[in-house]
């Protein structure tokens, strides 16, 4: 049993750093309903952005290839700093120039959004194979804090959106339509799109400052921070199958295959499936159900990761159990999505509660499972050298899961139109 000194300031800085991982992508999805009111693509914008985000995974694959070949000689820190500087600047440009369009292929295209989201996606995907492996440089007791931060990357934009009052709209009559048709119009926004993305930009800078502090001033914080504000953490180390610094072995056999599969399943559900079908699952019950679901799911993402700090899953069977609960909740959401616009118990409070419980269970159990599985991948490394590679390939498995799920979901929704949406009005 090991006893280490836990510093809450370091943990907070790790959370802030982790919150930059998928911040830009989540910020766009939270604001997409506002964009559809002003940009020429309308509701087709979401499906276009989904493809762009998947294309943005290509640089990460190139990075992994170079890493595998040993061609990357600089440390991760300069790359992370550069990535955060780029994505923060791009986010600010999206906020200022989001309404700039260019005539391409017979229609006006939101070129700034396209290019901006590509770079935002590059950094977000890269965070899974670069930011996460960097955490091997910190004591393992801060590893969970990084995943709490990943959950915060969804919660922070949601808080900005709630302050903006982006979930409140009025149904406005569309002129010259018979029978009368209505569309949602966001008329009471507290602030506009530019201010929203400026807040996201500022949060990126906060995350960058947190990383710089962790990387260069970690020892200073340990020495300067009052000992009375730290506490000892007793942790039972998980013994790897092989513990030999001389061995070149990276993986521990079938157990690691199961872990990577769980990572792919959970991440595919969280980042690929649920954002695509959430409106089909909850909006048929009521706009309030949809709004509450988004808010609670955003809260459950960091909470699910935070719980893993106290309820550690040492046994792979426990991880399989929580992953199974996640998959069952996902299956229920898929059933409700295919039943749209008339799902079970529609027009009832019980139905609304059921839909909210189903969606929030995916994020709560999913984020918990993702955290404990990644932690297990790190702790069961056969040797210290293999930790970086294991975390990097675990991040690759996460992106593979998202890509596979998206490749199925996109044609189902946008090509074959098997899911029927409910008008906002």
Automatic annotation (TrEMBL):
Family: Belongs to the riboflavin transporter family.
Keywords of this entry: Cell membrane, Membrane, Transmembrane, Transmembrane helix, Transport
Molecular function terms, GO-annotated: riboflavin transmembrane transporter activity
Any one Gene Ontology cellular component term annotated for this protein: plasma membrane
InterPro entries tied to this protein: Riboflavin_transptr
Membrane topology category: Multi-pass membrane protein
Catalysis performed (reactions): riboflavin(in) = riboflavin(out)
Principal subcellular localization: membrane
Function as written in the Swiss-Prot or TrEMBL entry: Plasma membrane transporter mediating the uptake by cells of the water soluble vitamin B2/riboflavin that plays a key role in biochemical oxidation-reduction reactions of the carbohydrate, lipid, and amino acid metabolism.
Protein name: Riboflavin transporter
Listed transmembrane segments: 9-30, 42-66, 78-105, 111-131, 143-163, 196-217, 257-278, 290-311, 318-338, 350-370, 391-413
Subcellular compartments: Cell membrane
Stored Pfam families: SLC52_ribofla_tr (PF06237)
Signal peptide limits: none
UniProt source species: Bursaphelenchus okinawaensis
